[in-house]
Amino acid sequence: MKSLQGASAVVSGGGSGLGAATAEALAAAGAKVVVLDIDAAKAQAVAARIAGVAAVGDVAEEAPVAAAVEQAASLAPLRIAVSCAGIAPAARVAGRNGPHDLDLFTRVIRVNLIGTFNLLRLAAARMTANDPLEDGERGLVVNTASIAAYEGQIGQAAYSASKGGVVGLTLPAARELARFGVRVVTIAPGLIHTPLMDGLTPEARESLGKQPLFPQRLGRPDEFAAMVLAVAQNPLLNGETIRLDGALRLPPA
Fold it and tell me: InterPro entries attached here (predicted)?
């Protein structure tokens, strides 16, 4: 879509990290943005900063996500939905304390995969009712996976499975929604300096930053956001998962 002026967007996980950067970029490009996050204070802070609207709720529950979608559609035609909500707890399949906790595995799948699909299905259904743009496009859904979907490390079984599921749903969803002019694209980031990284020591962050081949540093959330805008502007991108990782390939551990 050539312009986001006169359009609305929903960003899940919009209260921090990739989601906050994406919400800011979409607002700067002219969209009216609904910032959805489970943390009300964070959602409200970002929404206030970008003159957007805050929405609070669990991405894996129907009611709050449906409400956020309708909030966006009430502002302007919903043209973009971006899923950035996610969790990444580490646990071994067979660790010192026994087998991987099943509830933990379930929670990761629930947030990362079911939460992503929840926004995808609700936003796409709303987008099908939009008037088409000049090229016939009605909307775009951008999912967030991870390069761990391809090279999951030891301790990442749940996270990798959840992100692999996001990659797997991208093409069939794009194929189904193509007749409505709704695109589905997934971005698989590598090592990005989000608030999760702030819990590490500077030495650990420096070590991680040396892993990408070029640029040899941690990625920035604004670079992810720039990719979302690039996808929005290029209608030929559809049904694809784009690695955003500086040519990084994760080692086993």
Answer: NAD(P)-bd_dom_sf, Sc_DH/Rdtase_CS, SDR_fam
CB of 77 closer than 8 Å to CB of 126: no
Using CA atoms, how far apart are residues 125 and 70, in angstroms rounded to an integer? 11
- Concatenated DSSP letters for 39-93? -HHHHHHHHHHHT-EEEE--TTSHHHHHHHHHHHHHHS-EEEEEE-------B-T
Average pLDDT, the chain: 96
User: Where do the structural domains in the chain lie, given as residue ranges?
Assistant: 8-244
* CATH numeric code, 8-244: 3.40.50.720
Q: Is 183 helix (H, G, I), strand (E, B) or coil?
A: strand
Could you report the per-residue pLDDT of 157-193, keeping only the tens digit for each? 999 999 999 999 999 999 999 999 999 999 999 999 9
Taking the complete model, does pTM exceed 0.90, yes or no?
yes
Q: Is the Cα torsion angle 12, 18, 20, 25 positive or negative in sign?
A: negative
What is the rounded CA–CA span in Å between residue 90 and residue 157? 8
Taking CA atoms, 119 is separated from 7, 75, 114, 248, in Å, by 17, 18, 9, 29
Token pair 């994406």 is at which residue?
22
- CA dist 248 and 187 (Å) reads 15
Question: Is-contact 112 163, C-beta < 8 A?
Answer: yes
User: For residue 148, is pLDDT > 90?
Assistant: yes
Please pick, among 159, 224, 243, 250, the residue that the annotation labels catalytic.
159
Has 159 been annotated as catalytic? yes
Cα separations in angstroms, 79 against 17, 116, 153: 22, 17, 35
Beta bridge partner(s), residue 21 = none
Tokens matching residue 9: 């967007």
Q: Alpha-carbon distance 2 to 249, whole Å?
A: 33
